[in-house]
Design goal:
This protein has eight helices and 21 strands. By secondary structure, it is an alpha+beta fold. It has a six-stranded mixed β-sheet with strand order 7-8-9-3-10-11, sandwiched between helices. Strands 2-1-4-5-6 form a five-stranded antiparallel β-sheet, with helices on one face. It is elongated, with a radius of gyration of 24 Å. The structure holds adenosine-5'-triphosphate (ATP). The site of adenosine-5'-triphosphate (ATP) has 12 residues, from strand 2 and helix 1.
Length: 340
């Protein structure tokens, strides 16, 4: 049985629908990332799972217990759920000590008290134990959040790395992943950062306007986006039209393999790294912009057919703006037909 089951979950604020009839399952020990743009309802979804927001319709089931549903609303502190917020404060209405104890709420009382003391000592916050969480500095909140992360069976993370600079972010991301994996905790992370979702999660759920549009392992969500919108949101992409026949699709750039059989007129999502350039053949495109990114380069080309194309290549050999190049499918390049 899944650890978390969300069924027909809906929530509006006045006339603004934030989450719409959303269905999602999270397995035990799984790290699932909900990836979506700002305002698509990610935080509202998380707050309904945590118990801070009452759904208008549908239910939240955690470990086979209905914690929110018609006529039922289990309070946050009884849900065995821990939450790591953007600003690392956990529950603003609780003291520092209360937050630590909350993270340990599955333990018997005596053990919990002892562990709370030990955890506070460990992170050097015993002198602030009875103070409010908002008095802690950012630096003090980090170790606190980290100390708490492994204890609850289900950990909810709301853009936990978004306020950090890039170098800190990558390190902390790995650390949090290790803690979660080590504790075999189930984690639901919401983010608008596609790199974070793809690199961290076992599965990624792509969210748009309150609904999940695609769920799957990162490789699948990136490589076989379900819709044009999902393709464009989860990374850079060229959408090409073509004719599918058997295992391939013929486009103006040449033939790509198809991951799933299709036939007739289709649109396919071709990632920038699925195209390659050569200068040996007569050119069929011109380099109009170049973005040097250290380990790779993103070229913007104007194809002879008029289309603008994105091509990503290792930075070993550089093409200049104005160069005539020949662009074609990289080998192997398998693509999927988009459903809209
Ligand atoms: P962000 O990444 O910007 O935090 P999000 O994907 O988490 O966005 P939500 O914060 O869940 O999105 O908001 C979804 C929609 O619901 C938005 O239109 C938002 O303005 C609205 N909303 C959220 N909370 C409230 C509230 N308490 N009162 C009124 N409207 C709200």
């Amino acid at each position: 049985m899944s650890h978390v089951r969300l069924r027909g979950l809906s929530k509006s604020f006045g006339s603004v629908p934030a989450v719409r009839e959303l269905n999602l399952d999270i397995e035990h020990g799984e790290l699932l990332a909900v990836l979506g743009p700002s305002g698509c309802g990610k935080t509202t979804l998380l707050r309904m799972v945590a118990g801070f927001e009452r759904p208008d319709a549908g239910c939240v089931v955690v470990s086979d217990e209905v914690v929110a549903g018609p006529g039922r609303m289990v309070p946050p502190e009884k849900r065995k759920v821990g939450m790591v917020f953007q600003d690392y404060a956990l529950f603003p209405h609780l003291t520092v000590e209360g937050n630590v104890a909350f993270g340990l709420s599955t333990r018997p009382r005596e053990e919990r008290d002892a562990l709370t003391r030990r955890t506070l000592e460990l992170v050097g916050l015993q002198h602030k134990a009875s103070g409010p969480v908002y008095e802690l500095s950012g630096g003090e909140r980090h170790p606190l959040a980290r100390a708490l992360a492994p204890e609850p069976e289900l950990v909810l993370l709301d853009e936990p790395f978004s306020n950090l600079d890039a170098s800190l972010r990558a390190g902390l991301r790995r650390e949090v992943e290790l803690i979660l994996r080590d504790a075999e905790a189930t984690a639901l992370l919401v983010t608008h950062d596609q790199e974070e979702a793809l690199s961290l999660a076992d599965r990624v759920a792509v969210m748009r306007d309150g609904s999940i549009v695609q769920v799957g392992p990162p490789v699948e969500v990136y490589g076989s986006p379900a819709t044009r919108w999902a393709a464009q949101f989860v990374g850079e992409v060229n959408v090409l039209s073509g004719v599918a026949r058997g295992g391939g699709v013929e486009t103006e750039l040449g033939i790509f393999d198809l991951r799933e059989p299709a036939s007739g007129s289709v649109h396919v999502a071709v990632r920038p790294e699925q195209l390659e350039l050569s200068t040996r053949d007569a050119g069929n495109a011109e380099v109009i912009a170049r973005e040097f990114r250290g380990h790779d380069v993103l070229y913007r080309l104007r194809h002879e057919g008029g289309k603008t194309l994105l091509v990503q290549l290792p930075s070993l050999e550089l093409h200049e703006v104005g160069d005539a190049v020949f662009v074609r499918p990289a080998s192997p390049a398998a693509v999927t037909a988009l459903t809209d």
